[in-house]
Amino acid sequence: MDQAEEIVEGKRKRHLKMPTAFGILLILTVVAAIMTYVIPAGTYDYDGKVPIAGTYHTVDAEPQGLWDVFQAPITGFADAFDVALFILVLGGFLGVVFETKSIDALIHNTVKKHKGKEKSLIPILMVLFAIGGTTYGMAEETIAFYPLLIPVMLTAGYDMATTIMVIFLGSGCGVLGGLVDPFAVGIASGLAGISIGDGMEFRALMLVLQLTFAIIFVMRYAERVRKDPSRSITADMNKGLVAKYNIGDDEFVELTGKRKAILAAFAATFVIMIISIIPWEAKFGITVFADIHSALLSIPGMSIIMGHMLPLGDWYFTEMTVLFFISAIVCALIYRFDEAKTVSLFMAGAKDLLSVALVLGVARGISVILNDGMIIGTILHFGETTLSTLSSGVFAVVAYIMYIPLTFLIPSTSGLATASMPIMAPLADFAGVSRAVVVMAFQAGAETMNFFSPTQCVLVGALAITGVPYARWLKAIWPFLLGVVAIAACVLVLAAGIL
Question: What is the pTM of this model?
């Protein structure tokens, strides 16, 4: 290829580059505005936030112009301010925790303790990565662990693909069955108008089944490669990699007393969060946390500390934001960061998630256009008439399958949730399905696509580090994907029939 051809090829590659999540969402906002000139305007009568079936009626059209397109993300961000602030404070909390390298130390210490027993290390590490995925959506953070695990796996007779599977599938199953992942289930539940605690028992079931299946799949593949290296998808690439990726013990991060305390605080924060968002009294009639709250307030002077704090079980985004803010300070005190460094780490962590907070506004802008243009009711009416014949289980599976390609179009989980939930949640009402099931379908569908999407940055990064070609990854992973889809569909059908 001569220089001229290289320039043309380079221009072609730049031309075909996938737009960012912001670009895609802005394009969809323009499309939504155009739709207000085409689709008849209409609306429903509402019982709170729930549209009442059979009450659809036409109204005067309110077509949206160019100014409205640019105003929509601003209005959308204002509407989603509580969620966006929660994301920023969560980022600050994670910034402080990550600086202590406590999570790194936990992984490193686990690897070190199981040296020579790598087979037992596979399920342990996958569980740890899944915990990260199910609590705070661990994804990009996993990249740092590849240089650590590559030599361990290769020395044990496994291959590069095994390393990817342990880390990527472990954390991915955690996200797919996320219990309190704020970037997926948290945002989606808030937009659906339900508590994060709604449907948690079925998300836990999804997590256990998917992770168990993933561990079995990875261990079978790893053992097959160990017994017969020629069956590795990277058989022609494994020679000499042990020496290339040899990392000494001096690279390991020690699990000190301070780091153990940080891990305890980290775990306690998410335990409190889980307890606080389950509507114990309102949904289950359990008053123990309300009773404890009242008892504490009756102690002289305790009201000065607790102020207007709500009982656990009645918390929402504002209270969760306060929790992570306090936890960030506690972790900084444990690790003895001074005030200046704590603020710097908190700000840096919040900055890392600024794009996530901003994408909420851009995605919410689509709903603003549809609502202001008075066509969201017409779209819902179409869904009501077409979905009325579907059983609850079929609706849940259809929603799950629909979210898989949608994730390729909008790779940002927060953006996808914000753009789709205002429509999908009311459609669930019409189909007689709990909104918690739609949140599960969104969450499972998004992560199913991420397991093999060529635009998924974490997967692309893992393949780049290990040198595994994308085509070979697909060859290794397709049986796993079939199992993931089957398990997700079964759990969703079960949840749709019970919730």
Answer: 0.80
